[in-house]
């Protein structure tokens, strides 16, 4: 049975001077460093047999996909299932002065962190991401696909295919900016997971400055 690889690329750093949780809000583009991160990811994938490229509809993901499209001469397809997880705190600061965690009026949203109660359920995220993975696998049958998405959806997908519990500590996520989480498929069955950080480790910065990015 032919091996197909589906790479899940997290977008690069976002221009976010207000340090809010931007979630699905429009208009959040890559920073200059984010553009360089996207280029490093494209260079990392250069020479591989990538035949299909698909992205979340959000601007930062589309911009991250652009260097890969140029590298392989591919169009960028769009799949809404790759979008960031919905979150009740979009447009707000999560930590620090004025953060939602310090306002008692927001505390009711934290009553069930296992779902989580403040956003899209983890299982729902994992199901839509796995469906997107299967669709990309079908498009790239016998070759490789790149799906550009976001931190939490990629983490949920990886935990799902590895049989881990979906609720988790965000501080321990292995999904740095412009990182690549790769699923190896034989048919519709995942037979392995690989991980690479072409732009280096950025997780600590993300949790401090760009929660839920």
UniProtKB/TrEMBL annotation:
The keyword Flavoprotein does not apply. Coiled coil: none annotated. GO terms for molecular function: hydrolase activity. CDD domains: HP_PGM_like. The keyword Hydrolase applies. Its EC number is 3.1.3.-. Keywords: Hydrolase. Pfam families: His_Phos_1. SMART domains: PGAM. This is Histidine phosphatase family protein. It comes from Jatrophihabitans lederbergiae.
